[in-house]
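Appendix B. One record, verbatim.
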Amino acid sequence: MTSTEPAGYMPGFGNDFETEALPGALPQGMNSPQKCAYGLYAEQLSGTAFTAPRGQNERTWCYRIRPSVKHVGRFAPTPVPYWRSAPDIDPGRVSLGQYRWDPLPMGDAPLTWITGMRTMTTAGDVNTQVGMASHIYLVTESMQDEYFTSADSELLVVPQEGRLRFVTELGVIDIAPREIAILPRGLVYRVELVEGPARGFVCENYGQKFDLPYRGPIGANCLANPRDFKTPVAWFEDRDAPSRVVMKWCGQFHATEIDHSPLDVVAWHGNYAPCKYDLSTFSPVGAILFDHPDPSIFTVLTAPSGTPGTANIDFVLFRERWMVAEDTFRPPWYHKNIMSELMGNIHGAYDAKPEGFVPGGMSLHNMMLPHGPDETAFEAASNADLKPEKLDNTMSFMFETRFPQHLTHFAAHEAPMQSDYIDCWAGLEKKFDGTPGVK
C-alpha cells in the first residue's frame, strides 16, 4: 500500500479533488481521452442523476486497469441473515416503546464486515430510496479476497472499539473510535481489521446523500467544516487472484466470482468519494446566558428529504462542551417530537442518562413517544449550583429520522435489551403543590 493516510477535502461539499498513484495517469484538460496513459480505461462513477443541479451534481472520473464491467460475472444469491433492509415489519414485533440495549458481545465466531453486521432498526423503504437502517458491526477478522459494494445506500460508520481499514477503489482509509467514515453508494471495497476486535455503529442511508447542514444565523463558522473531511489519495492493486464480490441490491445480497482484485483505480478526480472525519474537530455551539436550544444545533451531517427542514436522517453529536446557562435545566428536557431518535454511546457518560447507557450501548425513542432525563439526572440538574461547568468524558450520537424505526427480529429477541429501561422514570414524583412561583 502506498498510503493509508487520507488527504484533501471531502468531495460533494463544494470541493473537487484529484489524485494519481502513477505520474501522468490523470488526464489534464479532458475526462475521457481517446487513449489514456498506461493503457488505462476511463470510467465515470455517478452518485447523482446526470442532470442534477450543478451544486448538487456528484461524479468522479476513474482511470483504471480494467473497466468495472470486468469486475462482475453472473450473480447468485448469498445469505446474509442478520443484515436487514426496510421494510422489515412484523405485526407481532412491538416497536412502540422506549428501548435500550447493552453493548453487543463479540462472541467466539469469526466475523467479517459482512457477516458481523447486525441490523437493529429499519425505516422507510429501500426500494423507493427513502429512509434508513441502523446497524451494529462486530468484526474479528479481515476480509480475504472478498469485496463489498452496496447499490442501496451510503454507509455512515461510527467506530466504538477497535480500528478498521477500508481499502477502496479510490484509496485507503483507516478509522478509529471518535472518527467517522462515509462510504458512498456503488463504491467497491474490502474491510480489514487493524486492531480488534472491532465494534461500532452504522447508519445506512437509502435517501439523499449526507451533506453539511445549513448554519442559518450561526453564520460561516462552527459545527463541522468541509476542510476537516478527508478523502484518500489514489492507490491501486494490480493483482490476479480468485476473488469474490458481494453486492447489496434492493435489500438482497448477491455474489459473483472474478479472477482479480477490483481495486484497480490508478488515478481519479471528482467530488464523489469516501471520506473520514475526526469528531474532535466538531465545534459545538450553545446558549451562553439562559434557556435550552434544540439539539439540532449539534447536527454534524444531514440527509435531506423532500420536506424542507425535515431530514431523512440527521447525524447529531453530543461531545465535550461547556455548560454556562443561568437559571436553566441544562440536560435535554422532557419532550416528544415527530422524529425517531436512535442514540449510541461512543465513550463516557451521557448527561441525561448517567446510569445504564454505557459505551457501546444504544437506545431508541420512536416518534411521538415521550422521553428525557432519568430520575437521577433530573434531581441533580434541578439542584445543581449553576456555575460554568465543563461537560467532559462524553461522546454520544443520534441517528434521527422523520420515519418510524421498526425493530428487527434480532433487536427484539436476540440483542441484549434492557427489560427494565422504562423503570428509570418510575421514581419521578409529583411535585405540584398549587403554590405560585418556581422558587
